[in-house]
Write a structure and sequence with these properties.
Layout: E1 2-7, H1 12-28, E2 30-38, H2 45-62, E3 67-73, H3 76-87, E4 91-95, H4 109-117, E5 122-125, E6 136-142, H5 149-157, E7 160-172, H6 180-195, E8 199-206, H7 215-225, E9 229-233, H8 245-252, E10 260-263
Parallel strand pairs: 1-2, 1-4, 2-3, 4-5, 6-7, 6-9, 7-8, 9-10
Antiparallel strand pairs: 5-10
């Protein structure tokens, strides 16, 4: 059985993360753990947190989904790593936007630091994310040099709806050519998707001359094609600057509310 770990801080954005977890758990037959990490000990604080977490638990179980709650204490990043190592979830789901993420800390380089540190896929949503029922109908996978490129393909597949399409997407520069490593990764993905009867499309877009990096062109394409999720590798490929640190942060904090699935 799949297992989703949802990190919450009791904000409206955490509610979105929980709602998205519920819809995915229904479709993918998953159980859910809801966890809050706090860094300030106070008398009676644990009891208050348990009461708040039990509110989430009741809503989740009312949907017929198995759920447990967990309270962890310490630094957000190290505590979340320990949680993932302990619970071994299939995926972490967390909400962020600007300075309104967990403990008012998950923005910019901080959310990027978290998704790089967790040894499982992490789905990042924000305050503008629209909840998707039944999985995502369209998922975009940017092509890249990563040796583990197929991780973002297979992890993206896990969130596709039954009739969904996975888009392999390249932003190409002036010469319009992809190098050999990227072409190999694209061919591997196409073969794998065909073998698993997954609908896919390959798309290329020319890089906008006024845009720095690749995030703006990618988000523009996603909006044009009404693509609901992007699947990326959190680490930066050593062979190129495709989706560098600034690109990844821009995707994670995109103003359109598009969820980002990060693999390691």
């Amino acid at each position: 059985m799949k297992h989703y770990l949802v990190l919450v801080d009791f904000t409206d954005i955490a509610d979105i993360a929980v709602k998205q977890a519920i819809d995915l758990a229904k479709e993918k037959n998953a159980k859910i753990s809801v966890c809050h990490i706090y860094n300030t000990k106070q008398d009676g604080h644990t009891e208050v947190l348990e009461s708040q977490l039990n509110g989430y638990k009741s809503k989740i179980e009312a949907e017929g989904i198995a759920c447990d709650i967990k309270i962890s204490h310490g630094d957000l990043f190290s505590a979340s790593e320990i949680l993932v190592n302990e619970l071994e979830p299939s995926m972490v789901i967390v909400g962020t936007h600007g300075k309104k993420g967990i403990s008012q800390a998950l923005f910019g380089s901080a959310i990027y630091k978290m998704v790089r540190s967790l040894k499982c896929p992490t789905l990042v949503v924000n305050e503008r994310t629209q909840i998707r029922s039944g999985g995502f109908d369209k998922i975009l996978v940017p092509v890249s040099h990563h040796d583990n490129f197929m991780d973002k393909v297979t992890n993206g597949m896990n969130l596709l709806s039954k009739t969904g399409t996975l888009y392999l997407f390249a932003v190409v520069s002036e010469n319009g050519a992809l190098d050999e490593k990227i072409e190999e990764n694209v061919d591997r993905a196409k073969s794998y998707l065909n073998d698993h009867d997954i609908s896919w499309l390959y798309k290329e877009e020319s890089k906008g001359m006024a845009n720095f990096g690749f995030a703006d062109d990618t988000l523009k394409f996603m909006n044009q094609e009404e693509i609901g999720l992007i699947s990326i590798i959190a680490d930066i490929a050593t062979e190129s600057k495709h989706f560098g640190k600034m690109d990844k942060e821009k995707l994670l904090l995109n103003a359109q509310g598009l969820p980002v699935l990060c693999s390691n």
